[in-house]
Write a structure and sequence with these properties.
alpha+beta, six-stranded antiparallel β-sheet, binds 2'-deoxyguanosine-5'-triphosphate, binds magnesium ion
Amino acid sequence: MAKSRFEYVRTYEQDAILLPNTYIVIRLDGRGFHRFSAHYNFQKPNDKRALCLMNAAAKQVMQQIPDVAGAYGQSDEFSFVLSRECKMFDRREAKLVSTFASTFTAQYLFLWPEYFPDTPLDGNMLPSFDGRAVLYPSLREVRDYFSWRQADCHINNLYNTSFWTLVLGGGLSEQDAEQALMGTNSGEKNELLFSRFGINYNNEEIMYRKGTMLIRDVGTGGSGSASASASESTESIDVREWHEKSKRQIEREKTKRRKAEIVELHVDIIGNEFWTDAGRWIS
Ligand code: DGT
Ligand code: MG
Ligand code: MG
Ligand code: MG
Ligand code: MG
């Protein structure tokens, strides 16, 4: 490209580069979904169509971006964790975050009619998602990050389930329901649901209670890491040591991720089990 005398303006561009050798978590969150969900009459407290649409859009993002190891979603948010060796866009933060947000938004729009066949989108109320990238130095923090989001899902869902049961099932006004729940702990909310409405919270749909984890089924015959030993599979990931990987190894893992089937799980990701059994999806 011929250089013009205007070319110098380019030197004003500042790229924030994400630290090497760290896990990148990109969290997307629906903009103003309080209003968005009301506009399209999402069922309260959970609209299955809306949650499945989020999952489907996230799955498409994973399909298109093999650097994503796994993703967790709940409510109007989705978090994608990228492998530590990820070199996509030379780890330029703005390129990464904006690409994730726009790819996800495009998929959400494209898939909308499949999940809301009777509800056309309104040009004055279209979905958009903000995004941010957070870096974590080890699997310990990555794991705690996912635990944090799932705990958030649990707390909000228990509250929302109690609130809407009081309003829709108990005939309370929204203010009275808020009053009734003020200062109650989890046990008291469970008790209220059970004693007044015969609802056992633990029998509520698991996707609502646990959110959705998407991982790649990289198989059990040797994990993503070529040097993985048999004993590693039973080892808790937070004690697994990180070691420098060769370019070939990184490429091999990427190919494996690209080919692997994406599995949708609605399970506890706070306890050890998920990270010992399924922990192979991340290395
Ligand atoms: P933001 O993120 O600051 O732009 O604002 P919002 O309004 O998106 O707030 P946020 O992200 O904290 O909360 C998510 C909102 O989306 C919350 O008001 C509940 C709503 N929402 C998400 N999923 C569902 C659903 O399945 N059913 C219903 N009725 N509402 C939902
Ligand atoms: Mg939001
Ligand atoms: Mg917010
Ligand atoms: Mg949100
Ligand atoms: Mg371009």
